[in-house]
Amino acid sequence: MTFLCLASYFxxxxxxxxxxxxxxxxxxxxxxxxxNEPWARHACDDxxxxxxxxxxxxxxNAVSYLMRTRPVDRVVALDDFDVExxxxxxxxxxxxxxxxxxxxxxxxxxxxxxxxxxxxxGVRVPEFCPLFNHDAVRDFLARVPGPWLVKPRSEASAAxxxxxxxxxxxxxxxxxLGDDQSFHLVERMVPGDLYHVDSLTANGEVEFAEVNAYxxxxxDVYQGGGIYxxxxxxxxRPEVGALRAANAKLLKAFGLGWGASHTEFMRAHADGELxxxxxxxxVGGAHTADMVEHATGINLWSEWAKLExxxxxxxxxxxxxxxxxxxVVMSLARHEKPDTSAFTDPEIVYRADMKHHIxxxxxxxxxxxIEELLTQYMARIAADFHAALPGADKVGH
Length: 397
Hints:
Layout: E1 2-7, H1 13-21, E2 25-31, E3 46-50, H2 56-67, E4 74-77, H3 83-92, H4 102-106, H5 111-120, E5 128-130, H6 134-143, E6 148-152, E7 162-164, H7 167-177, E8 184-188, E9 192-202, E10 205-214, H8 218-224, E11 228-232, H9 238-254, E12 259-268, E13 274-278, H10 288-296, H11 300-310, E14 325-332, E15 348-351, E16 357-364, H12 367-384
Parallel strand pairs: 1-2, 1-4, 2-3
Antiparallel strand pairs: 5-8, 6-7, 6-8, 9-10, 9-12, 10-11, 11-14, 12-13, 14-16, 15-16
């Protein structure tokens, strides 16, 4: 088959390499600003770039021109921001039998769509209200106690979320949004512990699901300019089974079918219940795939590529996994190239190599050892390296 892979950010080399290893024809379509990134060009039959993915007509024209001489069987979006673009192209070129069309894709990008679908499936969600009708918003604010969050419907992670502690704060934000109000929603803020379930689905069934937990909710990291960290949850914890069950129920209801997903749940401090926060049809960012691979031996990017090859068949088999523990710590840094030579623990399996970033992936046989190292590293990074620079929202993308 011939795959057209969309990526507006640099990610997914393992996906490209696995497709090529499976004997597929691989085309990468990216944007001009990312064209010179170190893509796995050895795994691509060709690499193309457009100015951006926002101009849908220009994008259709570019892909149409490509397809005059190169037939395309599958379109795959490698980044969260590209999921709707991929669905749009499948609709235009009538490839929806090979992946999500635009309505299905909204369940993995649009926070309003995914909340409604989760509620309909019996998965608990925080009370929410779209910002369509002001009387409905007034009723919501009168019924649902604050604080509240005003969220963009199609951003990633915690980007663009505002906390409102009074009804006046909500209305101030609504006024600021102007004609963009309908692209946002308001929901009850649920303080708690934030988890992410990183999974692989084949033929509608979750074949692999690893439960991880952030050290701080992403909203706190984003708004407070803090340090990002996550780690494997000990697999004998009671919440692990509950999170896997909720994740499987959600993805079946959403019709993921085939592919990788990154789904977040909050366990509320007030009542101990699990609340669905958001999901996606892609691999989690901020070295989540590296963490999961060092904890289990399963590379999410590579297996996602295999799932795309097997889509519509019964031929997928998950590789043998192991059970270790891993974690990630990432931060913006004051220095362009931080010197991390003082970090010498043998549990370090990866060092981030990005300008103005410091970060590590850690792996060990013990969850307690990962917890100990993350605590130490977060303190050392905060004291010697951390900087809250513009663009903090890109940490964890």
